[in-house]
Specification:
By secondary structure, the protein is α/β, with parallel strands linked by helices. The chain is about 40% helix and about 15% strand. The protein is built from 7 helices and 5 strands, in the order H-H-E-E-H-H-H-E-H-E-H-E. It has a 5-stranded mixed sheet, sandwiched between helices.
């Protein structure tokens, strides 16, 4: 069996270094993995709260613990043809950002000054919670039709960055 020579190995190391993701890309890729746990039939969302380049908590959208997920119970919003961004109270699930905040709280982890990475822009409900938790920055990929959320984030002075698809 022929091994990789030193020069070939060194070349591979240089190639892998040049392909190394930025911190934002790295954490955004993790949100995509977290989103795979989602049980929502309409939109799979993942969120990660990070401080000092360390993951504090993760969340994905789905029904509260121990309850039937939409995959089993069906989607109320879908059956009533409710457009995205409207009538949040008719959803069985919690949003990914809400679940990340809850996980931090359950484990006694402060998320003050944290960065939220999310596969989607937060809605107004999540935005208000994130403002009150002290999150200082939000990075997302997919847009969400909620101008009030955008306005409140700007008013709160929270940095918001839309990344291109990771």
């Amino acid at each position: 069996m022929q091994g990789i020579g030193f020069m070939e190995q060194n070349s591979l190391d240089q190639d892998s270094l040049s392909a190394r993701p930025s911190w934002d890309q790295y954490f955004m890729e993790l949100t995509a993995v977290v989103a795979k746990r989602s049980t929502c039939l309409r939109r799979k969302v993942g969120a990660i709260l990070v401080r000092d380049k360390r993951v504090l908590a993760t969340g994905y959208n789905g029904a509260p613990s121990g309850l039937e997920h939409c995959q089993e119970a069906g989607c109320i919003r879908e059956s009533k043809e409710i457009p995205s961004g409207q009538r949040h109270e008719l959803c069985r699930g919690l949003h990914a950002e809400q679940n990340a905040i809850i996980q931090a709280a359950l484990h006694g982890i402060s998320i003050d000054e944290a960065v939220l990475y999310s596969t989607h822009q937060p809605c107004i409900l999540c935005t208000k919670m994130l403002i009150n938790t002290g999150v200082k920055r939000i990075v997302f990929i997919g847009e969400y039709p909620d101008q009030l959320a955008n306005n409140m984030l700007a008013e709160a002075g929270i940095e918001v960055q839309k990344m291109e698809d990771a």
